[in-house]
Amino acid sequence: MSITVAVAQFTTGTDKESNRKLVTEAVHSAAESGAELVITPESSMYADPEQRSEPREYAEPLDGEFTGCLTELAADAGIAVLAGFTELLPGRSRASNTLVAIGSGGERLGVYRKLHLYDAFGYRESERIEPAEHAEPLVFGLGGLRVGAMTCYDLRFPEMARSLTDAGANAIAVPAAWVAGPAKEEHWSVLARARAIENTSYVLASGQTGPFCTGQSMIVDPMGSVLAGAGEQPGIALARLHAERVERVRATNPSLANRRFAVIPAPHT
C-alpha cells in the first residue's frame, strides 16, 4: 500500500485572489505529477508577516471562500489537499491558525487548530491568534497511510508528533511558514528529520518561501533520510510513500514499542 505525496511551497501575501491562484497552480501541478495528496504551507490563504492588519480582518469561516475553493480544487483535480488558513472563530476576539484537509472527492477529512503558538524569536503569535484547546488529533487515512497534521512551530515539540503517532499516524504533515533567520533553516531540517527518526514515520514538511521564510520543503523517510526537497524557490517536491516501509523500519528500530513514557496533555494556560 502506497501513495505519492507532494509538498508545495510558494510565498503568499495580502492579496487573497493571487494567493488562491498560487494554491490552484500547486494543486494542479501536484495532480499532473501523479500525486494523490498535496500539502500547501501555513497561511496559504493570506500572509501578513509585517502585521499590517489584525487577523480577524482577513480571517474566513471554516465554510468560507478559501475552503470552498479548496473543495472544488480537490474534487476537480481528484487529489486530497491539506492547507493552512486563518479561521474566523465566532464570538472570539482572536482568529485561529487552522489546517483543513479535503479529500479527493471534495469531502472534508478533518480540521486542526494550532496548539503551539509562535511566541519565540521576538515574535508573539498569541497576541493575534487564539491558542487551540487540546482536541482529537487530525489524522486521516489515504492509500494505506495514516497522515497526521500539525503546524509550523508544533515541529519544535516532540510530544506533538508523538501524540499524532499514538493516534495512528505513520506520516506527519507539517504545513509551515518557517521564519528565516540565523540557523533557522538548519533548525527546520534537523527537527523534521528528528521527528521522522524518533517516530519512525514519514515527515511531509511544506513551507512558505522567501523573503520572510526559508522554503526548503521536504519529504523525510522514517529512517531520517530526505527523499525529496524543493530548495528555495516556489515549486513542489514529490515522493512515493509505502506503508510497508514504515513497518520494516519499526521492526528494525522498535523504539515506539520500547518506550516507557506516555504523552499527557498539559493544562491550558
Chart the SSEs and their pairings.
Blueprint: E1 2-9, H1 16-32, E2 37-39, H2 55-58, H3 65-77, E3 80-87, E4 96-102, E5 108-113, E6 119-120, E7 123-124, E8 139-142, E9 145-149, H4 158-166, E10 171-176, H5 184-199, E11 202-207, E12 218-220, E13 226-229, E14 235-242, H6 243-252, H7 255-258
Parallel strand pairs: 1-2, 2-3, 9-10, 10-11
Antiparallel strand pairs: 1-14, 3-4, 4-5, 6-7, 8-9, 11-12, 12-13
How far from one another are the termini?
42 Å
Quaternary state, please? single chain
- The average pLDDT score comes to 96
Could you tell me the CATH topology label: Nitrilase/N-carbamoyl-D-aminoacid amidohydrolase
Q: Write down how many β-strands occur, each being a DSSP E stretch of 2 or more residues.
A: 14
Discrete helix count: 7
Shape: globular
* Relative strand content: 25-35%
Q: Report the structural category.
A: alpha/beta
Outline of the structure:
With 269 residues, this protein is of the alpha/beta class.
Written overview of the protein:
This protein is an alpha/beta fold and 269 residues long. The chain has a single domain, classed as Nitrilase/N-carbamoyl-D-aminoacid amidohydrolase. The chain contains 7 helices and 14 strands. The protein has helices spanning 16-32, 55-58, 65-77, 158-166, 184-199, 243-252, 255-258, and strands at 2-9, 37-39, 80-87, 96-102, 108-113, 119-120, 123-124, 139-142, 145-149, 171-176, 202-207, 218-220, 226-229, 235-242. The strands form 3 sheets. The chain has a 6-stranded mixed sheet. Strands 8-9-10-11-12-13 form a 6-stranded mixed sheet, with helices on one face. The chain has a two-stranded antiparallel sheet with strand order 6-7. A hairpin with a 5-residue loop joins strand 4 and strand 5. It is globular. The mean pLDDT is 96.
